[in-house]
Amino acid sequence: MLGLTPFKYLPKPMKAILIANLAVYLLTWLDGYNILFFGAFIPSRASELWRFLSYAFVHFNFMHILFNMLMFWMFATEVCKSIGEKNFTTLYLTSAIFASVFSLPLYTLGLIGNNPVVGASGALFGVMVAYAFLFPEQTILMFFIIPMKIKHAIWIFIAIDLFMANSGDGVAHFTHLGGVLSGYLFMLLWSKNIPLKSFFVRQKKQETYSKEYFREQAKRQPSSPLEGELHKGSASAKEERLNEILEKINLTGLQSLTQEERDYLQWFGRQNKK
User: What is the pTM of this model?
Assistant: First the structure.
C-alpha cells in the first residue's frame, strides 16, 4: 500500500485534485483568514452553496493535508483505474458534497455545533469505501503498523468516527460518515451497472464492430494479409477498434466492456505476441 505510483503516471483527475489541494494550502499562508471565511463549510451559512464543495480543498495544518493527500494517493489510484476517470471524478466530488450535506440535519437537530468544517476527509472516506468495495481482500497497514484486510479495516474507521463523534476533539466525524455513505451508495449503483454517466456525464456513442465488419474490411483490401479467424481487416481498422476499447476502459472502467470487446482485447493481445 505504501508503494505510491509516481505522480506523472497518475490519472488526470488525481493530479488535478492533488494540485488543487496543495495550491489552496499554499494560499492559506498568504491570507488564511479569508480562505477560511469564504471556503469553509459553515452550517449556518448553508445558503452559500459553494461551501458544500470548497471546504474539501481547504487545509490549514501541514500534517492534516499531508495525511489526507497521502491516503488519497494510496487508495485513489486503483479506484480510478477500475471505475474510469469520469466515474472517479463524480465519486470524489459527490462524496465531498454529500458529506457536508449530511452535516446539515445534524446541525439543525443540535447534534453538532456551527464550527467551520475544512478538509478532504469526507471525500477521502468515499474513496476508501470504494476501494474496500472493489478490493475487499486487499491487506493494508492499519495505522501504518497493523496488517489488516480492508474489508475489516473500513469498519474500524467507521466505528472510531462513531465513538469520537461527540468527543469535542475538533474533528468533523459526522462529515466522515457522510462520505462513507456517499461512497457506498455510489459503488452500489456502479456495481449494478446503473448508467451513472447518464446522470452526470454525457458520453459519446460507442460503436461496435462485429466479425462481419472485419471480414468486409478484408474484402475491400484483398492484398492485406488476413490475421486470425475472429477478427479480420486492415491494420488501421484493428488499431482503431483497439483505441476505442481502451478509451472506453479509461472513461467507464473495465467492467463496462461487453463480451465482444473483451474477446477482441484477448485476440489482439495474442496477435501482438506473435
Answer: 0.70
